[in-house]
Design brief:
The structure is a single chain. The protein has helices at about 75-85, 150-155, and strands at about 1-5, 20-30, 35-45, 45-50, 55, 60-70, 105, 110-115, 120, 125-135, 145-150, 165-170, 170-175, 185, 190, 195, 200, 205-210, 215-220, 240-245, 255-260, 270, 280, 290-295, 305-310, 320-325. With about 325 residues, the chain is mainly β. Strands 9, 10, 11, 12, 24, 25 and 26 form a seven-stranded mixed beta sheet that branches. Strands 1-6-3-2 form a four-stranded mixed beta sheet.
Length: about 325
């Protein structure tokens, strides 16, 4: 988890409270051109909604990478520092962050894991999972991230009954989230069994990531669909498109799909010269709600699982609002 802090500015008006600085330092860069330098700190973390209302505070301190310098293609080091001194999130609109929902360890040596996987309401009430809903931007319901704790499932064991499909996520072996002990997943946790474009099945397996900060749905290229791909490497618009995922109950594969189009982050499908570790952006979130069950169940070996249910009217949404079920 990484979060910004202005070392060159007064901390009195910043959103950081007390923290303890550790020994780890590092640098993280992204393909978008964002570069960040950080110190390791430990601190309690409070999650708030977009209106600043506190919703949940971590029961114990967690390890966080405190970013003290950053640049981006449209942001110089001086501009970053000035925005931070003004109390503004300096990378807003440029970088969507790796603070919350990653299911893997960003840095094992520094102990960096998603904050969401470490949350507790009490020493006996760990987070169980989280649901992401983007929905329709024209609909009255807001995009939201909903956190569920073990106590929620104890009071309502049928919480997941409305989800129609589930798949086991790819495990990283022995790595577990600090505090809760939930198993971590790989950085590309979906084990995709193939995809179909305009009725043509492509039997290529690959690992993929649903990324709320990503852009287009990406799939590996295949000669059988070359005639469906335009000069920019995108699937033609107006085609039935779906990916196949193995069902967690062993009953076979299930399909998640939509009609391809030209809109980034919604329905554009990028055909990549790559056979594995592909970013599928947030396209599927315009068509399906997802629930990440961090605890899993006995059949999955208590490894994380991902659940899906269709959204009636798909559309893109730029912002997730955090809410907590208690």
């Amino acid at each position: 988890a990484l979060a910004e802090y202005p070392y060159s500015a007064s901390a009195t008006d910043q959103w950081w409270g007390s923290f303890t600085t550790g020994s780890q330092t590092g640098h993280t860069g992204f393909g978008s051109g964002v570069e960040m330098d950080w110190h390791q700190v430990t601190a309690a973390v409070t999650l708030s909604d977009v209106f600043g209302s506190n919703l949940v505070t971590s029961g114990v301190v967690v390890s966080i990478g405190q970013v003290h310098a950053a640049t981006a293609p449209d942001l110089s080091p001086g501009e970053w520092a000035q925005r931070m001194e003004n109390g503004q999130p300096a990378l807003h609109g440029t970088f969507y962050g790796n603070f919350g929902a990653g299911l893997f360890s960003a840095d094992v040596a520094a102990g960096f894991y998603s904050v969401l996987g470490q949350l507790q309401l009490s020493p006996t009430d760990n987070i169980r999972g989280f649901a992401i809903h983007t929905g329709n931007v024209n609909a009255p319901d807001n995009p939201r991230l909903t956190l569920y704790f073990e106590s929620d499932f104890a009071g309502n064991p049928n919480l997941l009954d409305s989800y129609t499909h589930s798949t086991n996520l790819v495990s990283t072996g022995s790595l577990t989230f600090p505090i809760t002990g939930h198993h971590a997943a790989s950085e590309f946790p979906l084990d995709v069994a193939g995809y179909t474009a305009d009725g043509i099945p492509v039997d290529k397996t690959f690992h993929a990531l649903i990324d709320t900060g990503g852009t287009s749905m990406s799939v590996p290229e295949d000669a059988s669909i070359d005639h469906l791909v335009d000069e920019n490497g995108n699937l033609d618009s107006g085609l039935d498109f779906s990916i196949s995922l193995p069902s967690s109950d062993g009953s076979g594969d299930f399909e998640l799909g939509f009609v391809s189009g030209p809109t980034e982050s919604v329905d554009r499908v990028r055909v990549e010269d790559s056979d594995d570790d592909l970013n599928m952006g947030l396209s599927l979130l315009n068509y399906y709600d997802i629930f990440v069950d961090l605890a899993g169940n006995e059949d999955s070996g208590y490894r994380p699982q991902m659940y899906f249910r269709a959204i009636p009217e798909p559309a893109a949404a730029p912002l997730l609002v955090v809410q907590v079920v208690v």
